[in-house]
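sanity check this:
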Amino acid sequence: MLQKRIIAVLEYLFFLFLGLGLLWLSFRKLDLTKVWNDIEDADYTWLFLALIFAIMSHITRAARWNLLIKTLGYKTRLSTTFFSVMTGYLANTAVPRMGEFVRCGVLSKKENIPFNSLFGTVISERLFDLLMLFLLIFLVIIFQINLLGTFLHKTFDPMMHSFFTNRWSIIFSIAGLIIFMIISFFVIKQNWHRVQKLPFYNRGRDFVKGLLEGIKTIKKMKDKWLFLLYTFIIWLLYSFMVYIPVLMLKATSHLTFIDGLTILAIGSLGIVAPVPGGIGAYHFIVKAILVELYHINGDAAASFAVITHAGQTLLNVGVGSISYLFLILSKKQKPVNEKLPNNTAEDLHS
């Protein structure tokens, strides 16, 4: 148990320092005075409007989660679900991926719903959000093919040309990959009983099991079209949430809505990175998009990344803290479901 905690702490510190390293790389060659001047001169009306769209997306996410919970045969209030979602975002700000566990745990205790069932629905949500992200990336590639093509050609063409003009490089690379796959297969097969005892095996098995349960939940859902509509609305609100802030700086105000979708699609990789609060990773990726794709001045690009990240973080911390406070103050409010069986209650504490 102690060993697992030490590993968890070391893992957290590793990604924290990785984020701080990316943050340093993003700002090391910039004029911080100019960055600060851009931050002071920004029109924060647009940021405030973007945060309103963010809250609307979180409310819609809570409504969509209620559809999945309803399919399980349980009831819940929209307000309680929303507070649980925001408490999860608060947890994610400190510890990556912790929010999914926290929001399920909070709602489980608040409304007497089995934790494992709730976690299965969250995996279903993540599956659809991942599909939407892939769809968004595909649309960005279609609409921005010339822009992205020029960037990729400029970045990778010299390296790829050097690689593909060397016949032996291709032969050795393919042969090495095949040999590695064959050796890996036989090693895993010979030590399968040991692999089953490894922590990641159980995590992977539980993830696949939860994913299958989540897919079954969606399959049983009566309001499939409403679920898809909520999913579309969530990502549409995300699009406005990312695009509207470009209007707050003169250097980015000329960017179009499609450009905003590009920032959302690629910038999301910084948010999902296992770095506390997306710090560093988000700044690095968004700054790179603005500088490399749209030729925005590095100081202004960094200012945009700082303002938007700070706005989202303050929203998650502020609304998340208030939501958690509401959940604590409403402890006397009776759950909408009957008391869980003893064996289920034990599962929640295990």
